[in-house]
Write a structure and sequence with these properties.
globular; 24% strand; 119 residues
Length: 119
């Protein structure tokens, strides 16, 4: 399964960034793949859905996520994230502060998709 891919929801195109159940090393590779896709898109054109359910992280992942989220800002019209729980809340808050973004957290993918297409 491709971890960075476009999906359709209610006739709208969303970019799914699927980090679910990944190791820290896998997260870093997916970030690299996602950067290539995102940076080719026009400014403020993307609706992104990020799934971090069960994702493993470390300091390298935290720093990479900060930089990745900040760099993507010009290309993203709206973003949503699912899978934030436990200690990931601390990482999420650090990423939001560093990136200057406010990406809402949703309890499940379907709710996040519905919110994104309304943006």
């Amino acid at each position: 399964m491709e971890r960075v891919r476009f999906i359709e929801h209610q006739n709208r195109r969303l970019l799914l960034l699927d980090f679910s159940q990944c190791s820290a090393e896998e997260v870093l590779q997916i970030i690299g793949d996602a950067e290539k896709v995102i940076r080719r898109q026009p400014p403020r054109s993307l609706l992104t859905l990020t799934d971090v359910t069960g994702t493993r992280y470390n300091l390298d992942v935290t720093q990479a996520m900060k930089e990745f989220t900040h760099a993507n800002k010009p290309h993203v019209r709206a973003a949503a994230v699912v899978g934030i729980d436990g200690l990931k809340k601390i990482v999420y808050e650090a990423v939001m502060r560093f990136s200057g973004r406010n990406v809402p957290v949703f309890p499940d993918i379907e709710t996040a998709k519905d919110w994104l297409v309304a943006q």
